[in-house]
Amino acid sequence: ELKVEQNPLFLSMQEGKNYTIYCNYSTTSDRLYWYRQDPGKSLESLFVLLSNGAVKQEGRLMASLDTKARLSTLHITAAVHDLSATYFCAVDGSSARQLTFGSGTQLTVLP
Amino acid sequence: GAVVSQHPSRVICKSGTSVKIECRSLDFQATTMFWYRQFPKQSLMLMATSNEGSKATYEQGVEKDKFLINHASLTLSTLTVTSAHPEDSSFYICSARNQGGGGGYGYTFGSGTRLTVV
């Protein structure tokens, strides 16, 4: 059974600071997704990582994937208030072709 | 890009009644759709996988007689919560697997349905 662990669960950070969210998963997969969820809303796709060593960047967010370590990171650079949201990683099981979600990281960026 | 339309966005119903939620893929054919439930401050939990023209596959612990899923066409899946009770109050989100660029595939999510059972 595929398990996805995400940490931290809660993250408060000052504007302008950097931080990293971690996503570990338990079985082989080469497809990992990052999503953002605002309160009361559905999921917004941020990144799709499809191979070992993949790195994608959009604005102040950068995601990477290490399939050998079964680890993905979401790095936040110079945080701004607009980044406050809950961030989920999700792993596509290689045989099941369905997503298993991490527990989510609730990010609050403080002025 | 691929769009999934989910309706209604909010519904309030009385205990014991049934509620139907629709999930439509607007610009692509979705042979497989997924239904998730999300309680406040929690992650998304997969309830069932819906396959066009065949029976849905339910996750362990999900009552198939209570959560009826129909995927009668390549663009529409429905989730009916039967005999709803207050503990069924939750945020329900559908997702469709769509063909992505380069021969790959991705997942597109609906906007979610907030169900409140009173």
How does the SSE layout of this entry go?
The complex is a heterodimer of chains A (111) and B (118).
Chain A: E1 4-7, E2 10-14, E3 19-25, E4 32-37, E5 43-49, E6 55-58, E7 61-66, E8 71-76, E9 85-92, E10 99-101, E11 105-110
Parallel strand pairs in A: 2-11
Antiparallel strand pairs in A: 1-3, 3-8, 4-5, 4-9, 6-7, 7-8, 9-10, 9-11
Chain B: E1 4-7, E2 10-13, E3 19-25, E4 32-38, E5 45-51, E6 57-58, E7 67-73, E8 76-81, E9 90-99, E10 105-109, E11 113-117
Parallel strand pairs in B: 2-11
Antiparallel strand pairs in B: 1-3, 3-8, 4-5, 4-9, 5-6, 7-8, 9-10, 9-11
Report a brief summary of the structure.
Chain A is mainly β and 111 residues long. Chain A has no helices and eleven strands.
Describe the global form of chain A: globular
Instruction: Tell me which protein chains meet in the greatest interface and how many residues each side has.
Output: A-B, 19 and 23 residues
Question: Helicity range of the residues of chain A?
Answer: under 10%
Largest sheet of chain A: 6 strands, mixed
Rough outline of chain B = globular
Low-confidence stretches of chain A: none
Structure class of chain A: mainly beta
Specify the oligomeric state.
Answer: heterodimer
Question: Can you write the helix and strand succession of chain B as a string?
Answer: EEEEEEEEEEE
